[in-house]
């Protein structure tokens, strides 16, 4: 992916590739038109890709499975809800029902 940015020195447009970004907040870009370098601030956006009903977030039962089945190093008393993906102890995730 790339984006068109404007050089603050010569005000010409140039393409900047996102593949150059290594999770930095500030990137350094060299303008091919005037050969000057400038800094750019990277903004990370998160896009919601899908939605689903999560009745457990509205007072219905969480559907729990032991988290230890997914992660071998997880404590045995920690559970994960199959619907909303919340994890915690039984006391954190009340009301609940078992799904084994």
Structure description:
The protein has strands at residues 2-6, 13-17, 26-30, 37-41, 62-66, 79-81, 87-88, 96-98. The chain is mainly beta and 100 residues long. The protein folds into 2 domains: 2-41, no CATH class; 55-98, no CATH class. Strand 1 (2-6) and strand 2 (13-17) form a beta hairpin.
Task: Please summarize what this structure is.
The chain has strands at 2-6, 13-17, 26-30, 37-41, 62-66, 79-81, 87-88, 96-98. By secondary structure, it is mainly β.
Rg estimate, integer Å: 24 Å
Shape: rod-shaped
Q: Count structural domains.
A: 2
Low-confidence stretches: none
End-to-end C-alpha gap: 43 Å
User: If strands are numbered along the chain, what order do they take across the biggest sheet?
Assistant: 7-6-5-8
SSE-based structural type = mainly beta
Question: What's the count of strands?
Answer: 8
Quaternary state, please?
A: single chain
Q: SSE string, helix = H, strand = E?
A: EEEEEEEE
Strand content: 25-35%
Residue share in helices? under 10%
What is the mean pLDDT? 77
Number of DSSP helical runs:
0
Question: Features of this protein?
Answer:
mainly beta, 100 residues, 0% helix, 8 strands, 2 domains
